[in-house]
Specification:
Elements: H1 3-21, H2 24-39, H3 52-58, H4 64-87, H5 106-114, H6 127-139, H7 155-159, H8 173-185, H9 190-196, H10 198-218, H11 223-229, H12 234-242, H13 247-261, H14 268-281, H15 288-291, H16 294-297, H17 304-332, H18 353-368, H19 376-398, H20 405-419, H21 425-432, H22 442-469, H23 478-514
Helix pairs in contact: 1-5, 2-4, 2-5, 4-22, 4-23, 6-8, 6-9, 8-9, 10-11, 10-13, 13-14, 14-17, 18-19, 19-20, 20-21, 22-23
Length: 520
């Protein structure tokens, strides 16, 4: 590519960004993420070695007022971002406004909304600090699968959430070596290392933002609706860009593999190699290796010859992906120690449905003196959740996957996220990113909108609670702000659904009057 063509291409991309910024709702979302980034500077979330402490102390902004103001900024930012997302929904605009969205590039919107997070501390999560501490371990010759961050007390370990300080790393070996590389590249600065963990996350987000609409075209799905529901989702913007979770790169590589598989009848083989790399970031990605061989030709009958072909291709796809994973594991030199750490994510109590059910059952049993162990029902409930996830995946594999392999992946990853012992909002994105590619019904779209708001509400209350308990002032109103925010989010989503339905009905009447089919 010549210099002139490169400059022309950059100018075209910059023009897309300028056009996106000219849309009021895009700016509204950017103001929202800017407020969230400012609110994340609250003392309750910053590690002691953060350079932001010098600024906060200089401003005398370190006590209860800082926590309350930080909470208020985050709540206001979330409200603006959610409102902007609702207003950006295809078909949600008035007839005159819709013209501005015709040539809008969703990747440009995603970039604008994510930009305020680039230099902000990790949002709503301390995982990036764990990544930095694990990279520091490898630099000092300690395998994170066999040790924990407290083997090296100091600034890196101090940043890590206390619950993860004495646990082995559960991540894939490629993810750990990338963390090692980032720690080295940032000059062994603990806080800067954590911020730089956004680099691989951003690579994943770029792949998601560019390729999801292209896959939608392959599947004859409206790319604008797919981009709105997936790449512009506030949970993705906050967790993948703001939170710097390595799930972003895993999902991005999975999306890349799916896109490759649609390029040619044989492309599922190199796509399986990509899935091996994705699993070396985070292991659940390996499930995609089963679906990739079904993309070019599907599974058309139960005849033994057809079954033989399907099974052979599935086995080959899995073998290629596992072989790629094994080669990466060998090259990293870290081994397979993650197998002993698969239960680490479940060591904390989250909003996992089966964990909540187990906790409630265990409480009753403890009150009645029915369980001397004090944890048997929790373990039983979590085991039941995993069994249900396995059953659902097995059923989807021989039914849904036959003709809709991407739908199989979306539903299966959602089943894993919802039935596993631990549930975090970024786990839901494993299948949530692919959900708009499944041609979801109106009820499913509505459910995903409600799920987005529920996950954000939980994050808001969690931040408010952290700001409250970290203060010595028992009258700290941060929790009250969080509860008020939840009520506000509920009002937002109900209003959005009413307005969307009313506008849809007007469009329907207009098309019926004009004798044109309605655009769903």
């Amino acid at each position: 590519m010549s210099l002139a063509s490169s400059i022309q291409s950059l100018d075209l991309h910059w023009s897309s960004v300028r056009r996106a910024w000219a849309v009021p709702n895009v700016r509204r979302g950017a103001y929202g993420t800017s407020l969230i980034a400012l609110g994340s500077l609250t003392p309750a979330y910053l590690p002691q070695n953060s350079p932001w402490w010098r600024v906060l102390r200089w401003l005398h902004f370190t006590g209860t007022p800082a926590r309350v103001v930080g909470t208020l900024l985050v709540m206001a930012g979330l409200a603006l971002l959610v409102d902007a997302w609702f207003r950006m929904r295809p078909g949600a605009q008035a007839q005159g406004e819709a013209v501005a969205y015709t040539h809008l590039k969703h990747w440009a919107v995603l970039g604008i909304w994510g930009a305020p997070f680039l230099l902000a501390p990790p949002i709503f999560s301390h995982d990036a600090y764990s990544y930095a501490a694990q990279g520091w371990l490898i630099h000092n010759g300690i395998n994170p699968y066999h040790g924990n961050v407290m083997l090296l007390p100091g600034a890196f370990a101090d940043q890590v959430a206390w619950v993860w300080r004495r646990t082995p790393a559960p991540y894939g070996p490629l993810s750990l070596q990338m963390q090692h590389l980032i720690v080295d590249m940032t000059g062994f600065d603990p806080y800067l290392s954590a911020l730089a963990m956004r680099i691989p996350a951003l690579l994943g987000v770029v792949m998601i933002g560019l390729l999801v609409p292209r896959i939608a075209v392959d599947l004859r799905v409206d790319p604008a609706k797919a981009a709105w529901m997936s790449t512009l989702n506030p949970v993705l913007v906050i967790d993948f860009i703001g939170g710097a979770h390595n799930d972003a790169l895993m999902v991005g590589l999975m999306v890349l593999a799916i896109w490759l598989a649609y390029r040619a009848s044989w492309a599922w083989l190199p796509a399986a190699v990509v899935i091996g790399a994705a699993a070396a970031i985070k292991q659940p990605a390996i499930m995609a290796a089963y679906a990739l061989p079904l993309i070019p030709r599907g599974w058309n009958s139960w005849h033994w010859r057809e079954l033989l072909v399907v099974v052979s291709r599935a086995v080959l796809g899995l073998a290629v992906a596992i072989g790629s994973f094994a080669l990466i594991t060998r090259l990293t030199g870290l081994g397979w120690g993650w197998l002993d750490a698969v239960d680490v994510p479940g060591m904390v109590v989250t909003v996992s449905p089966f964990t909540i059910l187990g906790q409630a059952s265990q409480f009753v049993a403890n009150q009645l003196g029915l369980d001397p162990t004090g944890h048997a029902l929790i373990r039983l409930s979590r085991t039941a959740g995993l069994a249900l996830a396995g059953l659902l995946i097995s059923v989807f594999a021989v039914t849904v996957a036959r003709h809709r392999p991407v739908t199989f992946l979306s539903w299966s990853f959602l089943a894993v996220a919802l039935c596993a012992p631990a549930l975090h909002s970024w786990y839901v994105l494993w299948g949530g990113v692919l959900l708009p590619l499944t041609q979801p019904s109106k009820k499913m779209v509505r459910a995903s909108v409600y799920a987005t708001v529920v996950l954000l509400s939980y994050a808001a209350v969690n931040l408010a609670y952290r700001n409250s308990v970290s203060s010595l002032d028992s009258m700290n109103p941060a929790v009250a702000l969080g509860v008020a925010a939840v009520a506000g989010f509920g009002w937002q989503v109900l209003t959005h659904e009413r307005v969307t339905e009313a506008r849809r009905n007007r469009h329907r009447r207009h098309h019926e009057h004009a004798g044109q089919p309605e655009d769903h």
